[in-house]
Each structure stands twice: as C-alpha cells, then as structure tokens.
Amino acid sequence: MKDDKSSNQMWGGRFASGPAAIMQAINASIPFDRKLYAEDVAGSLAHSRMLAATGIISSDDRDKIAGGLRTILHEIESGTFVFSERLEDIHMNVEARLAELIGPAAGRLHTARSRNDQVAVDFRLWVKREALRVTVALEALIEALLDRAEEHAATVMPGFTHLQTAQPVTFGHHAMAYVEMFSRDLSRAGDGVDRMDESPLGAAALAGTSYPIDRGMTARELGFREPTRNSLDSVSDRDFALEFLAMAAICATHLSRLAEEIVLWSTPQFGFVRLSDAFSTGSSIMPQKKNPDAAELVRAKTGRMNGHLIALLTVMKGLPLAYSKDMQEDKEAVFDSAETLDLMLAAMTGMVRDMVLDAGAMRRAAAAGYATATDLADWLVQKLGLPFREAHHVAGKAVALAESRGSGLEKLALADLKSIHPGITEDVYSVLTVQNSVRSRQSFGGTAPAQVRKQIRYWRKRLKKGRERR
Length: 470
Ligand code: ARG
Fold this sequence. Notes:
The chain has 19 helices and 8 strands. It is mainly alpha-helical. The strands form 4 sheets. The chain has a two-stranded antiparallel sheet. It is elongated. The two termini are 55 Å apart. It binds arginine.
C-alpha cells in the first residue's frame, strides 16, 4: 500500500497514510505493553539459559543473547531505547534490537517459543508482582484501621441500618468491620497469586514443541511453583488477569463504601470526623467549605475498576481455543486497575491515619436517636419476663413519650416509665445509656469494647504471621 494521505478520503483522515497505517495502529500494542519490558527480558533470559542447558543452542549464543538482553534492559531503563510501532509489541521490539546488537545469534532465541507463550508468561509475571504489591498496600491500610480501632475501642457512635440510628456501637467496632473486608481482599490477592503461580513458557504457539525443552527449569528460574499442564490452556488462559481485576473491583467497592462514610461523617450535619488539610480541599467561592475530595475520588474511581473487569470478561467470552488477538486487549484494563487501586489504597490509608474524630459528637448522635430502645425491650424480657414482641411494643411507647417530650429515653422519669408498664423499676436506667448498651453486647463479634479489643489482637497476630510468611 502506498503511503498516501489521499488513499482514502472517507475514513483515512486521521491517519498519516492508507489502510496499512490503520492496520498498524489497530494492531500495535507497544504504546502500552512496553510496561512488560522487564518481564520480557527476564523471560527471554530464562528461556535462553534453558535452551543452552538442553543443548538446543550453544553456550556461546546463550552468552551473546544474555549480554544483548542486559544492554536492552539498560537502554529501556535509561530512556535511550527507541520503540517502534512498526514492530507491534514489546516482544518484537526487544528481539529486533537484539538482532541489531548481537547479529544472527539473536535469531536463535525464539527457538521452541512463540509470542503466545511469551506474552502469557510476561503478563503472569507482571500481574503476580502487582498482586504482591497490593498485598503490602492492603496491609498498611489494615494496620491504620487497627490503630484507629484500638484508640477508639470504647468510643460510642450510632450504628445504622437504613442509615437510620439503630443501636449504639463503638467506632472501634465500625473500623473493624472494614478490617474484615480488607482482610478478605488481602486473602483474595494472595490466593490469586497461588493459582497463577504456574509458568506457561514452553507451551509455544499452542501445541507444545518437538524440541527437548525443560519447562521445569524455566518455571523455577522465573520463580513459578511449576509449569502449566496443558499447552492450549496455557496460551488461552487469562483467569489470572480476571481474578486480579475481580479482586481489585471488590476491594475498590470496599474502599468506596468507606469513602462514602467519610463523606457523610465529615459533613457538618454529622460532624463525626474532621479530615486533615492534606486530604481535603477548600472551595474557591464558599469560604466555609472543606471538601472531602480524596474520599469522593476514591468512591468515583470504583466505577472504572468495575468497568475494567466487565471489559475483560467480555473480551474473553466466546473466544475459541487457543490464542486470538482479542487477548491483546487484556493489558490496559489490568494496568489501569493496578495503578488506580494503588492510588486508592494510599489515599484511604492517609485519610484513615489523619482524620480527627469528634467522640463527643458521635456520642451525642448515638444518644439522640433512641438507640437504646432495643436495650429497654431486652431489659423488659430479661427482668420482667415479657415476651419480646410485647416488650418491643412497650419500648415503642416509651420512645413515643420521650419524643413528645423532646428528651432522651434515659431522661424519662420513673413515674412516666411506670405509666407505660407498672413493672419497670429504677434498675432500667442502667441499660438506657449508650455506654452501658455498648458494654452489654459481649457476644462473640459484638460491639462491647472488650470484644473489639479481642478482634484487634486477633488481626494483629494474623497480619504479623502473613508478613512473616512472605
Ligand atoms: N502483542 C500480543 C498480545 O499481547 C502478543 C502475542 C501475539 N501473538 C500472535 N499470535 N499474534 O497478545
């Protein structure tokens, strides 16, 4: 095809030349897959060492290849490497440069290998490393939450259902709910790594190879537990990327929920927390405002995390075995999810560490919402033997009375309470304060400060063990 701008007046306008240029533009992945350069070099080094060890290439060629690959690594990292779109992807860019550097020996590197297993191994290495990074970032967030939970294990706040005050809980308990969520993300990231820890290198194009390769050796050299067991699956599987995206989307969902609570809590109407200046911004027109932008952006970025997961699921559905070029679309989603999740985790960790809690405001809010009405009902059951349904009714009347007086339940006179149920005694006041309510919820996993502290100890120990295992 002639390089001529006028070759297609209808749809060629954006391109420097005709259909060949358009083909190149749609085909090339080098603008984004250059991110895989270190993994590509590592994979080729391992492959060439294995080829020499099995006698498929000479040790002389192996050494030339290794020298050239190291030069390329250095060129890329120092910014002097010239990437070419014409060479499509990172694999061909590296190989072409290798030929320039070492001559014909470069042509032996691709023996018993295809770009199909090459990209599969590169991408697995990249996702594996990134999942481990997520693990470290999640641990930092969990630690920040544990610290705040410990500090506020006995700080009472309203617990909500339907965003209506339900029962008093402690801030520590609330923070520990997020520790549970992020710990599940941590475990998802970890067992994703466990499953992807198999090397597809040596599957070749799709059917394996007739050369006497040693796939165990390349797997070991690249830090994989073992080689994959089916060459067709090896080049067509992107579960590791999907699992990473799913883990990231679920984790983002947790981050988004916490972000939403921070947005609510930091409004003057709630007033539970004050964000540090570092994690909020002012308004250019309204001087009184302090906006929780970081929390809002964490909440918003969850959208594209979900999008990336759906995008790759959609790319993969309906692909016949084995490799199809569709699979080249796997990378941008994963790259962006990894980068975005990193930023979201860092921002949330900073906000959690920095935010200042207003314990007084939380306690007042808990007391204002008749949050101990359930405690009153439970007292009627436990002390007077009322069936719960009847106790619920009596407590409801007490709430209505308190409401008409504009006071809290604990402010009602004993005579008033007796007018609702004659059996009520002075003793009832011991359960009507939010402090006592919280202290009484001693069931395993309950909100009593002692239970919260127990869970904090449990997670600190698990976190430590997890880190030691790495
Ligand atoms: N750039 C390609 C990708 O990311 C590499 C594999 C190309 N394989 C092929 N048979 N064209 O998927």
